[in-house]
């Protein structure tokens, strides 16, 4: 029954009897039938003839993935359901053998779960059938409905028989005798005989040749599998070899002279399915005694290594360091793991940096050391010797010497390591305060001797340097590391663009795999998705910092190992500067697939990574998927981190349809704009849950262990038991903060302080406090205010700041010495480097929680925020002479944020800035800026731009005519129609003087658009005919410009009532656009929309709806769900739904259109006023007059501001609102509005014009309503059942016809107030019952009387009255439905019955 209960059906071109029959059947099985063709429809039911004709409705349904079926399919499904239901009832009594079961049987079940197949043995068989196979998988439900199906690509199917269940994961069955084409087939299983799971492959062998039909494909498949098996075997052999070598080292105490010559390990080669090994890596290990070397370590960690990391980033090198500065803690002393941890980290490092003062370090038997410490040291050596046997001969040495001996003796694995050693001047001790001097002197004579011997050995094999003070060693190490990097990774050995991106993405993802607790439930969910049949993307969602990236990186690593046959491409947004650009994202996906699948196709250049890439990507992806039979898995993480420019958050760049062998895994924070789009697409969304206490405790221990740190059990418990640690980001920030602690004794206080924070943002505030303290302590003259200044400036920027040219200038503006300025900037950057990311060259914050913390700590008041924006505005304003894209993005935004409206006006009035911002991607910003300027009464756009066109400055290379036209187009979008007309005329004059006829035609079309908005359709027709004549002469009939001009002309014809001309013009335009631009182009959709508007005007609602839905689909696909073009179509759909009496759907459309227009165009745009008029009409239809007045008043305010006080639309709105007040019995409010409307029409048209007279007549009728002309007395009311024939009307009761009348029909009552119809044509429609309606009513009664005389059943029943009233009154526009109802009932003698409903 899920076929019915899970779906919604819509009937198309079926008879009423068929609809009634199918509706009852579907509802019997709990299905849903919809009368509105919308997005909820899953099945369209129609006739076979309609399916064969494949009309627009059928094509549209298919494009929306709506199943198109016939009524026979519904009946068949119902019968099949009854059969399955009967079989399931019988099967509950049957039993299936299960070996090992106590009872020997299990009951069958009618479970609807879909089984998953994992393996079939044998994997091939004869194509004649008659053999047994074993099927393995999950969720097998024994029963008579269970099926295993073999399906050939040609469509032939064979079902297995004789099922023998051995468990819910295994079944044996037989393939009956058959004859199928040889080659691969898909095998799938079903528990109910209807829903089949994801198939596995089986190979049918030709019984004569014993070869598959595609021998080459079969050989390739077999060889591919053998190659994968061989690679796995080689890796296992290499691992075994390494284990044997380690055991051999234990037995021989690492004496290499006892090893056979042939035991050198083979060169390890990575599996093809795993990520390539990263060989551009530098890992530094710091080795020194702890007590007297704290300051040196601080300089290296906080000054040298940040500079080295930046250099490595520029060279595409991964840099890391190990600083085990805590020494032997109490817990580590108890477990004696410190030495083992140090040696493990050193063994995995590439460089050792060693330093010594006068101290040697703790060792066994040292002067002054107690017995317990000696025991701990002994256990430490014993434990380390199990993994590193050679340490036994150094059992009486310090840990520091053991680390250095590992390098001296080359007792490490892997390639050769580099080592540098630095010895501090002994006289430095004299500068140390007396209270601390004991930490800097030698422990005793024995330790002094050991230190001397070690230094002598180091000097023999390595270059060792001397230094005076801790700051000096930082300079030496910095120089040595820079030289090492230059030699090992020369600049001329740069990676390609793809290799750079791949490396950075791998490094980024690897950071999430070092410390992660797998969540098996999520892993299983992703595994099921990838192996299932559906290719609809899956989305991992959750609040920021919940761990989405960690889940995907670790699942991807495991999936590569388990499924080496899959092609996996990952993209971690935010991991690289270009990763946040959706164009760069698509380019990288194409390049990676091109490389992995060895396609050797051309990939767009970086300069071409624009809209062309977005358009080409879907087709490219389809072709790439067709080139392989392997499954392709794409992972795109962090959609909410995309650069929001170019409408990235609308996800228009992400295809809607995907190849069958492609799986897409996405992630995004919720709530966010991309997540809203993903929900609308109805993707499968999985929300991540916070960590529980057990997971937190395990993560704390694992994270610290991986970083060679250790906390006491009490400290671990305090962190894990805190509720705020349930957020992975909070927990990670807390642990990262602990890692930089210089002294282990301070950990308790640091943990207590961190746990006072309740959110990640509050924790970041504590981190900022620590950074400020470190900055002041480590930089002479440094102040915490400098950190606050830098972070505040980054916060105030729109999308971040450039390090060179912006940050350095802003921070160095107070410094007279450039060297000191550069040093200051560098020191600040190094201090906060871990908090920042670099995207497209812009430095910005790593996450939104950090941004909140900075605002709260440094910018707590609005005055401080404005001050930051003012400073940034002043900085960018100094560069105003050279208008760049960067300046156009930041300068007006900063003026707006700092509320400097005068400066904002002068900024956006610059024609050079207009040239940068008036583009499809940025024009809405420009509209908002002018909205702020005009709202603050700082100027009028039309007047200011007109002056700017006289004085300049002008964009480089601009043409005067083009500039005038461009500004006029913008003013038209702002609804500044007078200014637009003036500038269009100026542009036309310039074009005409230079004999540019095509440009003149372009201006004429633009002028026609303005005239249409003003309601001057005759003038618009004249301009369009002139434009069309030029285009036909210059370009001919088959060009886009000609077609679009015909489309605009068709719209004007519709407004003028020239429907035949409109139909002809629009038909030609549509055919031309479809031919030249394609069916889905946005300009083609404009023509489709205009055709729909014509049908709506003619009250042909079904074709109108089809065209509007087609236009809406195209607009949403091109512009997204949040664009004024979409709002325009949705608005028109609302008008159509009003005609269908679907008021709720109409209101939903109008509300959506209004929301889009207010967001994109501003609250005072004329399109907003138009939507408000639609809402006004809707409320009038619903007789909600108070609400109608409210929206009408708002629309009136906008129209007055946009079109002027004397525009006809102002008068129309005044009349409509005034009439509503009279309906509400509030003439005191309506009277002034009518007087003002009469004055407007008098000034506009004259006192004797028809529209002026109509307004006066309407006002007088409302002020002095006349008694309606008496209608003939009604016949006796029929009984409730309406089964008797209504008596015919009595002609003699009619008064004499008026002069000139041809019938006895009485004259109509006085007309109510005229109604303004908001559409392409501005018309005044009298609201009285038309004579044609009365004629139809009388004809209906006469037919009824005739049928009564002939003894037939009565024709006019209650349902007939309802339907008849709706059909008749829909043919005209009736202003007052209540009067129309009353009038109609009087004609048919039903005055005393309840109102006839217009909506069925």
Question: How does the major sheet shape up?
Answer: 5 strands, mixed
- Average pLDDT figure: 77
Category from helices, strands and their pairing: alpha/beta
Estimate the helix proportion, in percent: 40-55%
The total of helices stands at 52
**What is the total tally of β strands?**
30
Oligomeric status:
single chain
Distance between the termini: 30 Å
The portion of residues forming beta strands comes to: 5-15%
Principal-axes geometry comes out as globular
Spatial sequence of strands, sheet with the most strands: 8-15-14-10-11
pLDDT below 50 for ≥5 consecutive residues: which ranges?
90-111, 208-215, 252-277, 326-334, 1280-1334, 1352-1366, 1368-1400
Task: Summarize, please.
53% of the residues lie in helices and 10% in strands.
């Amino acid at each position: 029954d899920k076929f019915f209960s899970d779906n919604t059906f819509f009937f198309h071109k079926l008879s009423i009897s068929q609809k009634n029959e199918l509706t009852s059947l579907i509802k019997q099985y709990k299905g849903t039938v919809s009368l509105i063709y919308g997005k909820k429809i899953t099945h369209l039911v129609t006739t076979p003839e309609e399916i064969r004709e494949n009309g627009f409705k059928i094509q549209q349904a298919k494009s929306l993935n709506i199943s198109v079926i016939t009524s026979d399919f519904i009946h068949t499904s119902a019968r099949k359901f009854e059969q399955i239901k009967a079989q399931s009832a019988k099967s509950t009594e049957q039993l299936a053998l299960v070996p090992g079961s106590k009872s020997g049987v299990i009951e069958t079940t009618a479970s609807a779960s879909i089984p998953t197949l994992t393996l079939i043995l044998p994997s091939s068989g004869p194509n004649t059938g008659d053999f047994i196979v074993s099927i393995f998988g999950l969720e097998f439900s024994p029963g008579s409905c269970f099926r295993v199906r073999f399906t050939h690509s040609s469509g032939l199917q064979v079902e297995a028989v004789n099922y023998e269940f051995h468990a819910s994961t295994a079944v044996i069955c037989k393939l009956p005798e058959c004859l199928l084409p040889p080659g691969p087939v898909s095998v799938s299983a079903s528990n109910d005989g209807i829903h089949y799971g994801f198939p596995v492959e089986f190979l049918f062998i030709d019984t004569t040749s014993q070869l598959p039909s595609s021998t080459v494909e079969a050989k390739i498949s077999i060889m591919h599998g053998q190659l994968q098996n061989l690679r796995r075997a080689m890796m296992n052999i290499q691992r075994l070899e390494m284990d044997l070598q380690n055991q051999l080292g234990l037995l021989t105490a690492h004496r290499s002279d006892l090893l056979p010559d042939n035991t050198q390990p083979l060169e390890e080669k990575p599996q093809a399915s795993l990520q390539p090994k990263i060989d551009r890596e530098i890992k530094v290990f710091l080795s020194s005694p702890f007590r007297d070397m704290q300051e040196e370590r601080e300089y290296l960690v906080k000054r040298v290594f940040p500079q080295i990391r930046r250099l490595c980033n520029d060279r595409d090198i991964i840099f890391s360091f190990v600083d085990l500065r805590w020494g032997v803690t109490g817990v580590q002393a108890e477990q004696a793991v410190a030495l083992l941890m140090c040696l493990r980290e050193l063994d995995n490092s590439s460089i050792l940096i060693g330093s010594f003062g006068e101290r040697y370090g703790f060792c066994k038997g040292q002067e002054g050391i107690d017995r317990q410490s000696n025991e701990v040291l002994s256990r430490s050596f014993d434990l380390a010797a199990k993994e590193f046997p050679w340490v036994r001969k150094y059992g009486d040495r310090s840990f520091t010497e053991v680390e250095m001996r590992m390098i001296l003796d080359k007792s490490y694995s892997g390639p050769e390591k580099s080592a540098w050693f630095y010895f501090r001047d002994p006289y430095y001790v004299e500068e140390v305060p007396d209270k601390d001097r004991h930490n800097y002197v030698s422990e005793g004579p024995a330790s002094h001797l050991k230190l001397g011997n070690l230094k002598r050995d180091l000097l023999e094999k390595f270059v060792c340097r001397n230094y005076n003070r801790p700051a000096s060693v930082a300079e030496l190490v910095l120089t040595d590391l820079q030289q090492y990097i230059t030699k090992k990774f020369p600049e001329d050995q740069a990676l390609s663009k793809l290799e750079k991106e791949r490396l950075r993405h791998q490094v980024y993802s690897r950071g999430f795999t070092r410390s992660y607790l797998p969540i098996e439930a999520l892993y299983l969910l992703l595994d099921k998705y990838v192996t299932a049949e559906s290719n609809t993307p899956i989305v991992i969602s959750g609040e920021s910092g919940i761990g989405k990236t960690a889940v995907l990186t670790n699942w991807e690593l495991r999936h590569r190992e388990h499924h080496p046959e899959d092609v996996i491409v990952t993209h971690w947004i935010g991991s690289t500067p270009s990763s946040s650009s959706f164009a760069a994202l698509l380019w990288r996906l194409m390049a990676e697939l091109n490389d992995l699948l060895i396609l050797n196709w051309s990939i767009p250049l970086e300069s071409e990574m624009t809209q062309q890439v977005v358009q080409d990507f879907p087709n490219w992806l389809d072709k790439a998927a067709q080139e392989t039979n392997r499954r392709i898995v794409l992972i795109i993480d962090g959609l909410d981190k995309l650069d929001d420019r170019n409408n990235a958050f609308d996800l228009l760049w992400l295809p809607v349809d995907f190849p069958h062998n492609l799986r897409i895994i996405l992630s995004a924070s919720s709530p966010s704009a991309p997540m809203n789009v993903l929900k609308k697409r109805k993707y499968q969304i999985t929300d991540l849950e916070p960590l529980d206490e057990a997971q937190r405790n395990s993560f704390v221990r694992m994270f610290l262990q991986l970083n060679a740190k250790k906390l006491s059990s009490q400290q671990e418990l305090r962190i894990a038991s805190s509720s705020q640690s349930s957020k992975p980001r909070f927990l990670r920030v807390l642990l990262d903060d602990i890692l930089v602690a210089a002294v282990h004794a301070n950990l308790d206080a640091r943990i207590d302080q961190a746990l006072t924070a309740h959110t990640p943002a509050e924790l970041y505030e504590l981190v900022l406090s620590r950074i400020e303290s470190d900055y002041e302590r480590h930089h002479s003259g440094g102040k915490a205010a400098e950190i606050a200044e830098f972070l505040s400036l980054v916060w105030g920027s729109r999308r971040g700041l450039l390090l060179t040219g912006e940050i350095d200038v802003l921070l160095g503006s107070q410094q007279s010495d450039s060297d000191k300025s550069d040093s200051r900037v560098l020191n600040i950057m190094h201090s906060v480097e871990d908090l920042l990311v670099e995207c497209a060259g812009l430095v910005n914050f790593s996450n939104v929680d950090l941004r909140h913390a900075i605002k709260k700590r440094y910018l707590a008041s609005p005055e401080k925020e404005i001050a930051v924006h003012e400073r940034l505005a002043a900085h960018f304003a100094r560069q105003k002479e050279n208008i760049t894209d960067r300046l156009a993005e930041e300068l007006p935004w900063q003026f707006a944020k700092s509320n400097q409206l005068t400066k904002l006006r002068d900024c956006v009035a610059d024609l050079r800035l207009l040239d940068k911002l008036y583009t499809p991607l940025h024009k809405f910003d420009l509209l908002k800026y002018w909205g702020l300027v005009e709202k603050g009464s700082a100027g009028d756009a039309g007047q200011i731009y007109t002056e700017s066109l006289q004085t300049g400055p002008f964009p480089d290379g601009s043409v005067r005519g083009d500039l005038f036209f461009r500004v006029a187009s913008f003013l038209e979008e702002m609804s500044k129609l007078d200014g637009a007309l003036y500038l269009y005329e100026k542009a036309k004059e310039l074009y005409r003087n230079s004999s540019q006829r095509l440009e003149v035609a372009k201006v004429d079309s633009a002028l026609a658009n303005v005239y249409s908005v003003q309601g001057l359709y005759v003038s618009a027709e004249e301009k369009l005919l002139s434009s069309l004549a030029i285009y036909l002469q210059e370009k001919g009939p088959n060009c886009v410009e000609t077609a679009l001009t015909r489309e605009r002309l068709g719209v004007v014809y519709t407004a003028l009532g020239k429907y035949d001309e409109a139909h002809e013009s629009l038909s030609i335009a549509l055919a031309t656009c479809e031919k030249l631009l394609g069916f889905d182009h946005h300009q083609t959709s404009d023509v489709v929309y205009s055709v729909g508007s014509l049908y709506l005007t003619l009250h042909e609602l079904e074709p109108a709806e089809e065209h509007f839905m087609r236009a809406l689909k195209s607009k949403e696909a091109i512009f997204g769900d949040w664009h004024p073009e979409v709002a325009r179509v949705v608005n028109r759909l609302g008008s159509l739904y009003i005609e269908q009496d679907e008021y709720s759907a109409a209101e939903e459309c109008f509300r959506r259109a209004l929301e889009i227009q207010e967001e994109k165009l501003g609250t005072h745009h004329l399109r907003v006023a138009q939507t408000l008029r639609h809402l006004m009409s809707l409320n009038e239809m619903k007789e909600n007059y108070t609400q109608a007045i409210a929206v009408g008043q708002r629309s009136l305010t906008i129209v007055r501001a946009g079109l002027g006080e004397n525009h006809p639309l102002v008068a129309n709105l005044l009349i409509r609102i005034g009439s509503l007040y009279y309906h509400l019995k509030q003439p005191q409010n309506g009277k002034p509005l009518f007087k003002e409307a009469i004055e407007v029409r008098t000034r506009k048209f004259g006192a004797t014009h028809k529209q002026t007279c109509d307004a006066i007549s309407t006002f007088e009728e409302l002020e002095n309503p006349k008694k309606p002309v008496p209608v003939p007395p009604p016949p006796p009311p029929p009984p409730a059942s309406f089964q008797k024939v209504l008596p015919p009307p009595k002609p003699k009761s009619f008064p004499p016809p008026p002069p000139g009348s041809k019938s006895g029909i009485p004259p109509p009552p006085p007309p109510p107030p005229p109604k303004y119809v908001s559409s392409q044509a501005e018309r005044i429609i009298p609201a009285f019952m038309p004579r044609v309606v009365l004629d139809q009513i009388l004809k209906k009664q006469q037919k009824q009387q005739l049928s009564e005389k002939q003894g037939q059943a009565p024709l006019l029943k209650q349902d007939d009255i309802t339907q008849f009233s709706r059909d008749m009154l829909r043919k005209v526009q009736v202003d007052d439905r209540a009067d129309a109802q009353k009038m109609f009932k009087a004609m048919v003698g039903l005055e005393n019955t309840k109102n006839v409903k217009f909506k069925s």
